[in-house]
Protein backbone atom coordinates (compact mmCIF):
# COMPACT_ATOMS: atom_id res chain seq x y z
CA UNK A 1 0.00 0.00 0.00
CA UNK A 2 1.35 3.42 -0.94
CA UNK A 3 1.37 6.00 1.87
CA UNK A 4 0.03 9.47 1.24
CA UNK A 5 2.61 12.23 1.28
CA UNK A 6 0.08 14.86 2.33
CA UNK A 7 -3.02 14.75 4.48
CA UNK A 8 -6.02 17.02 4.37
CA UNK A 9 -6.61 18.74 7.71
CA UNK A 10 -9.92 16.87 7.97
CA UNK A 11 -8.09 13.53 7.66
CA UNK A 12 -6.02 13.88 10.84
CA UNK A 13 -6.78 14.38 14.49
CA UNK A 14 -4.63 14.95 17.53
CA UNK A 15 -5.59 14.96 21.19
CA UNK A 16 -3.28 16.28 23.90
CA UNK A 17 -4.21 15.19 27.42
CA UNK A 18 -7.73 14.45 26.12
CA UNK A 19 -8.16 17.86 24.43
CA UNK A 20 -8.47 18.13 20.64
CA UNK A 21 -5.52 20.23 19.43
CA UNK A 22 -6.21 23.44 17.51
CA UNK A 23 -3.52 25.03 15.35
CA UNK A 24 -1.67 21.76 14.77
CA UNK A 25 1.31 22.21 12.45
CA UNK A 26 3.13 18.88 12.80
CA UNK A 27 3.58 15.76 14.89
CA UNK A 28 6.76 13.66 14.90
CA UNK A 29 7.11 10.40 16.83
CA UNK A 30 10.66 9.07 17.20
CA UNK A 31 12.25 5.81 18.37
CA UNK A 32 8.98 3.90 18.68
CA UNK A 33 10.38 0.86 16.85
CA UNK A 34 12.55 -1.73 18.56
CA UNK A 35 16.29 -1.48 18.00
CA UNK A 36 17.89 -4.62 16.58
CA UNK A 37 21.54 -5.45 17.19
CA UNK A 38 23.67 -8.55 16.73
CA UNK A 39 24.58 -10.98 19.47
CA UNK A 40 28.30 -11.48 18.97
CA UNK A 41 30.07 -14.81 19.18
CA UNK A 42 33.68 -15.82 18.64
CA UNK A 43 33.11 -16.47 14.95
CA UNK A 44 30.72 -13.64 14.18
CA UNK A 45 27.07 -12.88 14.88
CA UNK A 46 25.08 -15.67 16.50
CA UNK A 47 21.66 -14.04 16.56
CA UNK A 48 19.70 -10.85 17.00
CA UNK A 49 18.85 -8.88 20.12
CA UNK A 50 15.77 -6.64 20.17
CA UNK A 51 15.34 -3.85 22.70
CA UNK A 52 13.17 -0.79 23.10
CA UNK A 53 14.64 2.60 22.33
CA UNK A 54 13.90 5.73 24.34
CA UNK A 55 10.86 7.26 22.58
CA UNK A 56 10.26 10.95 21.98
CA UNK A 57 7.39 12.86 20.42
CA UNK A 58 7.41 16.41 19.08
CA UNK A 59 4.27 18.39 18.40
CA UNK A 60 4.35 21.82 16.74
CA UNK A 61 1.38 24.17 17.03
CA UNK A 62 0.51 27.72 16.06
CA UNK A 63 1.03 30.40 18.74
CA UNK A 64 -2.73 30.64 19.36
CA UNK A 65 -3.24 26.90 19.95
CA UNK A 66 -5.52 25.85 22.77
CA UNK A 67 -2.94 23.50 24.31
CA UNK A 68 -0.09 25.93 25.01
CA UNK A 69 -1.30 26.96 28.47
CA UNK A 70 -2.00 23.32 29.36
CA UNK A 71 1.47 22.34 28.12
CA UNK A 72 3.07 25.04 30.28
CA UNK A 73 1.23 23.69 33.35
CA UNK A 74 2.20 20.09 32.55
CA UNK A 75 5.83 21.10 32.03
CA UNK A 76 5.87 22.75 35.44
CA UNK A 77 4.13 19.90 37.29
CA UNK A 78 5.81 17.02 35.37
CA UNK A 79 2.46 15.19 35.46
CA UNK A 80 2.00 12.42 32.90
CA UNK A 81 -0.52 12.62 30.06
CA UNK A 82 -1.21 11.04 26.68
CA UNK A 83 -1.08 12.19 23.07
CA UNK A 84 -3.10 10.42 20.37
CA UNK A 85 -2.37 11.33 16.75
CA UNK A 86 -4.40 9.74 13.96
CA UNK A 87 -3.88 9.79 10.19
CA UNK A 88 -5.99 7.91 7.64
CA UNK A 89 -3.45 5.06 7.88
CA UNK A 90 -2.05 4.94 11.43
CA UNK A 91 -2.79 5.86 15.03
CA UNK A 92 0.10 6.87 17.29
CA UNK A 93 -0.67 6.54 21.00
CA UNK A 94 1.97 8.19 23.21
CA UNK A 95 1.56 6.75 26.69
CA UNK A 96 2.58 8.45 29.96
CA UNK A 97 4.26 11.50 28.40
CA UNK A 98 6.19 14.10 30.35
CA UNK A 99 7.12 17.41 28.74
CA UNK A 100 10.84 17.75 28.18
CA UNK A 101 10.84 21.22 26.60
CA UNK A 102 8.69 23.95 25.09
CA UNK A 103 10.34 26.04 22.38
CA UNK A 104 8.60 29.34 21.54
CA UNK A 105 10.89 29.89 18.54
CA UNK A 106 12.80 33.00 17.64
CA UNK A 107 11.18 36.09 19.10
CA UNK A 108 10.52 38.92 16.65
CA UNK A 109 7.58 41.05 15.48
CA UNK A 110 5.59 37.95 14.45
CA UNK A 111 4.50 35.20 16.80
CA UNK A 112 6.32 31.95 16.06
CA UNK A 113 5.12 28.37 16.11
CA UNK A 114 5.55 26.55 19.43
CA UNK A 115 7.33 23.18 19.53
CA UNK A 116 6.56 20.89 22.46
CA UNK A 117 8.92 17.96 23.00
CA UNK A 118 7.58 15.09 25.09
CA UNK A 119 9.14 11.95 26.52
CA UNK A 120 6.57 9.12 26.59
CA UNK A 121 7.22 5.77 28.24
CA UNK A 122 5.97 4.06 25.10
CA UNK A 123 4.56 4.89 21.67
CA UNK A 124 2.10 2.32 20.33
CA UNK A 125 1.36 2.38 16.60
CA UNK A 126 -1.74 0.78 15.11
CA UNK A 127 -2.70 0.53 11.46
CA UNK A 128 -6.12 1.87 10.50
CA UNK A 129 -8.01 -0.56 8.31
Q: Provide the low-confidence segments as ranges.
A: none
Percentage of residues assigned to helices: under 10%
What is the approximate shape? elongated
N- to C-terminal distance: 12 Å
Q: Which fold does the CATH topology refer to?
A: Pnp Oxidase, Chain A
> How big is the Rg?
18 Å
How many strands appear in the DSSP assignment? 10
Strand pairing plus helix content: what structural class?
mainly beta
Provide the number of structural domains.
Answer: 1
Brief sketch in words of this structure:
By secondary structure, the protein is mainly beta.
Key features?
single chain; 129 residues; mainly beta; Pnp Oxidase, Chain A; 8-stranded antiparallel β-sheet; two-stranded antiparallel ribbon; 10 strands; 51% strand; elongated
Amino acid sequence: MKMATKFDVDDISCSFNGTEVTGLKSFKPENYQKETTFISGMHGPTGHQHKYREPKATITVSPDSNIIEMADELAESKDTFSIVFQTPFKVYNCIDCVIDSIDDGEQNEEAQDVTITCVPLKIEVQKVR
